[in-house]
Amino acid sequence: MYWERFFKKSAANPIRYAKMLMKHTIYRNKNVYLLCAGAYAAKDAAIIGAYPGKTYKWGYFTDTKRPDFEELYGKKEKETVTLLWSGRFLYFKHPEKAILLLKKLLENGYDCRLKMIGNGPMFRKINNLANKLHLTEKNHFFGNAFSFAS
């Protein structure tokens, strides 16, 4: 099994809690493991007693070093820097921050563009934000990855 979050909004919702309990505790004594994509999925599984000792945490845990952007930009052969944002257009993934970053980079004199791959409930709102900030020539939306690949 793969799960990002059991209780993204709240564990206090009794209907949601009961559904998760029924869906995931049936595997308690079976040879089924949970791949937890995020910092809280293993904890959420433990709350309902699912997958005891059978959770693997993955994602969001890598160490990163802060790059020297001036040095990286100086090494770039092409003048235009291309940024890529890929994911579902959901409020908690903050696709608007990619648009605002593009705006800030352009205001600071960088020659860059942004490619956004994905779809979701916020797609239209983000597209409108790009239009409102006059970024349509520097920002490109490609839709879902499957349609992008074909």
Classify the fold: give the CATH topology of the largest domain. Rossmann fold
CATH class of the largest domain reads Alpha Beta
- What's the overall geometry? elongated
Taking strands numbered 1, 2, ... along the chain, how are they ordered across the largest sheet? Answer: 1-2-3
Count every beta strand, where a strand is a DSSP E run of 2 or more residues.
6
CATH homology group of the largest domain: Glycogen Phosphorylase B
Give a written overview of the molecule.
The protein is an alpha/beta fold and 150 residues long. It has 2 domains: 2-58, no CATH class; 69-149, Rossmann fold, CATH 3.40.50. 37% of the residues lie in helices and 17% in strands. It contains 6 helices and 6 strands. It has helices spanning 14-25, 41-48, 69-75, 95-107, 123-132, 145-149; strands spanning 2-3, 34-37, 55-58, 81-86, 112-117, 139-141. A 3-stranded parallel β-sheet has the order 1-2-3, covered by helices on one side. It has a 3-stranded parallel β-sheet with strand order 4-5-6, covered by helices on one side. Helix 1 (14-25) links the parallel strand 1 and strand 2 (34-37). The longest helix has 13 residues, at 95-107. The protein is elongated, with a radius of gyration of 20 Å. It starts with a strand and ends with a helix. 15% of the residues are buried.
Give the arrangement of secondary structure elements.
Blueprint: E1 2-3, H1 14-25, E2 34-37, H2 41-48, E3 55-58, H3 69-75, E4 81-86, H4 95-107, E5 112-117, H5 123-132, E6 139-141, H6 145-149
Parallel strand pairs: 1-2, 2-3, 4-5, 5-6
